[in-house]
Q: What sequence folds into this?
């Protein structure tokens, strides 16, 4: 697919006119072949505006700053910009600025000459050189050290730099896309980020909203990942049951799209072939399950763990005590050890919760 075709396809599907229960595979599967790992359709007005802006700026050489919480898909948006840009067939190099300490990050970005420092046994080409004529994606740029920020600013202004330990000026043609989950204004006020670099990055800014603020897109994204992962393992998954989809729509998604992707991937793996994904296939923690509106009452999981039908702490404690007593054949001393409390404390809690058993002498006639 050419970048021009991709650009046209981004606006080809009007999801507002699609039936909400239709198989969305027909909406985008044929257009993109599932190479994106990200759905290019949305019912969210904010996301539609972002896609519209991307179409306008992608073919320019403008620097783009992508801001949003962890897991909102900033790297995927950067990949989309690269894909529909005039540099689509050129290198797309990614660097996680938070993953490396300052000294290693500088070498990673600019490269080094042989003998530049201890352990530099040969010349190394840095990411800026690797990205020449293409795009460099600087992820988590808000975590970059101030000294490295100054060097990044110089390269962005002059498109020239020297390797560590070198004297030769290297010219490059690199477009920079940066991303951060931090508020850079706050970082500037705290003295941790350079204002001049911020202004240089802030030619075009994309603010990616968290998933909980675009709940209308949750069914679209969940179905996208369901189809994608089912295809990868050649498994037929019919969709999500109505109760499952309600849980997905009501969940808080602190981990955003990354959390949804991982949850759907696991669900596809464990769900029965030729079936719908059920609430139990989601394997949500109990607190998240009930917070999202789950109503199924369960006492014990298949692995023997306790899953409660209430968030009431007294009820949770009572079930934990009964479970421990059952596992220790109702011997209170052994159950107390399993629970990590004293036998006296357990005896008090047994009386408080009115727990009885026929094997205990005081309960026999």
A:
């Amino acid at each position: 697919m050419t970048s021009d075709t991709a650009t046209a396809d981004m606006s080809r599907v009007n999801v507002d006119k699609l039936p909400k229960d239709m198989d969305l595979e027909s909406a985008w599967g044929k257009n993109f072949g599932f190479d994106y790992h990200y759905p290019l359709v949305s019912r969210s007005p904010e996301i539609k505006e972002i896609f519209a802006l991307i179409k306008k700026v992608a073919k320019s050489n403008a620097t783009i700053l992508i801001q949003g919480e962890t897991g909102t898909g900033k790297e995927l948006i950067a990949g989309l910009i690269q894909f529909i840009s005039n540099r689509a067939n050129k290198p797309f190099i990614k660097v996680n600025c938070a993953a490396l300490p300052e000294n290693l990050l500088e070498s990673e970005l600019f490269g080094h000459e042989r003998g530049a420092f201890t352990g530099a046994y040969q010349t190394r080409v840095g990411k800026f050189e690797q990205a020449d004529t293409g795009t460099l994606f600087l992820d988590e740029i808000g975590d970059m050290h101030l000294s490295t920020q100054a060097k990044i600013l110089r390269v962005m202004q002059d498109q020239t730099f020297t390797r560590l330990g070198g004297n030769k000026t290297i010219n490059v043609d690199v477009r920079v896309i940066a991303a951060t989950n931090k508020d850079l204004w706050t970082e500037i006020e705290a003295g941790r980020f350079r204002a001049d670099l911020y202004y240089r990055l802030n030619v075009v800014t994309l603010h990616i909203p968290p998933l909980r603020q675009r709940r209308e897109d949750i069914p679209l994204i969940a179905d996208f990942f369901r189809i994608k992962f089912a295809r990868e393992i050649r498994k037929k998954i019919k969709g999500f049951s109505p109760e499952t989809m309600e849980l997905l729509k009501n969940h808080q998604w602190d981990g955003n799209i990354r959390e949804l992707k991982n949850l759907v991937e696991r669900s596809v793996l464990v769900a029965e072939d030729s079936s719908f994904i059920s609430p139990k296939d989601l394997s949500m923690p109990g607190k998240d399950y009930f917070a999202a509106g789950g109503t199924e009452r369960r006492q014990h999981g298949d692995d023997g763990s306790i899953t409660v039908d209430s968030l009431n702490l007294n009820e949770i404690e009572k079930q934990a005590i009964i479970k421990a007593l059952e596992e220790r054949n109702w011997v209170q001393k052994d159950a107390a050890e399993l629970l990590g409390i004293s036998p006296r404390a357990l005896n008090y809690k047994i009386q408080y919760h009115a727990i009885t058993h026929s094997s205990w002498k005081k309960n026999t006639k």
About this structure: The chain is about 45% helix and 10% strand. The CA atoms of residues 73 and 109 lie 23 Å apart. The two ends are 82 Å apart (CA to CA). The longest strand covers residues 175-180.
